[in-house]
Model the fold of this input.
Amino acid sequence: MKNKNNTLALAEFIARFQLQPPGNYPPSRNLRQAAVLIPIICHQTPTVLLTRRASSLRKHAGQVAFPGGSADPGDDSLIATALREAQEEVSIPSNAVRILGQLPPVDSNSGFQVTPIIGLLDSGTSFHASRDEVSEIFEIPLHQALTLASYTPLQIQRNAKTLRVYFSWYQSHMVWGMTAQILYRLGEQIHH
Done:
């Protein structure tokens, strides 16, 4: 799975993603639709683009996230939702994204069924944060983002239910919650 430089080879990632079925996860309980884009940048050592949400936002302020949001009535699909939100939040042109596929939906704490859409971007793609929504854009090496040992599970109680939450650190960034859960699930699928 790794080449001699200890990096996840992009061609191998793509093949494993397309050939390995996703894990058997419980069906989503939420009805409101949302989508996020998992932008994989095709550098020599591939990376995943993440954002830090603006501290002024009502929900999930300051958290590390993928570009994304709720579906609009005018969106033709959840892929269109993810691409529209990525354009709005970090100026990724829709035509610059090669859609690889999607993961099963994840329930958010805010009542959304969030579908992760995986897209490939050329290494020359430029990004610009919408300051209303994003305070920072950064990248994590793909091999680190998908290494299951990078994540620490924590059991928490919420509404009389025990939930497993994952945490991971990259430099000064704590990746946790739904973002970590999505990356962990993708890592499980790739390493299966």
